[in-house]
Amino acid sequence: MTAALMALVQGELLDARKAQDKDRVLLLSTVLSEIKNREIEVGRDLTDEDVVEVLRRAIKRRRESIEMYVQAGREELAEVERREASALEQWLPAAPSEEEIRAAVRAVVDAGVSALGAVMGKVMPQFKGRADGTVINRIVREELGSGP
Predict the structure, then answer these.
(1) Most CB contacts within 10 A, which of 28, 48, 73, 102?
(2) Which domain covers residue 108, as residue numbers?
């Protein structure tokens, strides 16, 4: 992991500890642990892209938990997950606009690619680590006329 980003996250963790914000301490400790585990897994220092991937996975897990909690009628637990997902999103790079994604999808479709999987295969690498795959998938389906 880059030294600057690691220092920033650890600094926030220290601030949360000083403020005795137990929820934030737990969240930041968990994320740092996931990042370090990923670093051990790949056997090298992580790039910013690698860290963003770890953060995206953590956010995705929380969004899946939100859906399950809402279905089970546990809104208070869903709210905790929402706050955590929101806190993690601050570390992500700015997401591209839907118009930017749509323009990239149109360019691929205009180049003659018309299968959903093929379009996704061409567009996803352009937005790796910056856009949610479900958003890209929805836009591709809209542009191909497949609907949602």
Answers:
(1) 28
(2) 98-144
Considering the domain architecture, whether residues 105 and 73 belong to the same structural domain is answered as: no
Conformational region of residue 10, where left means phi above 0, alpha means psi within -120 to 50, and beta covers everything else: alpha
Low-confidence winner among 2-6, 31-35, 142-146 (lowest mean pLDDT) = 2-6
**Mean pLDDT, the chain, integer:** 86
Lookup: tokens for 103: 């323009």
Could you report the per-residue pLDDT of 64-94, keeping only the tens digit for each?
999 999 999 999 999 999 999 999 888 877 7
Exposed e or buried b for every residue in 124-135, given b needs 16+ CB within 10 A?
eebbeebbbeee
Please state the domain count of the chain: 2
Work out the number of other CB atoms within 10 angstroms of the CB of residue 117.
9
Structure-token pair, residue 32: 């740092």
What percent of the chain has a predicted confidence (pLDDT) above 90? 35
Return d(Cα 52, Cα 58) in angstroms, integer.
10
Using a 10 angstrom Cβ sphere, with 0-12 exposed, 13-18 middle and 19 or more buried, the burial of residue 5 is: middle
Residue 11 half-sphere exposure toward CB, CA atoms < 13 A: 6
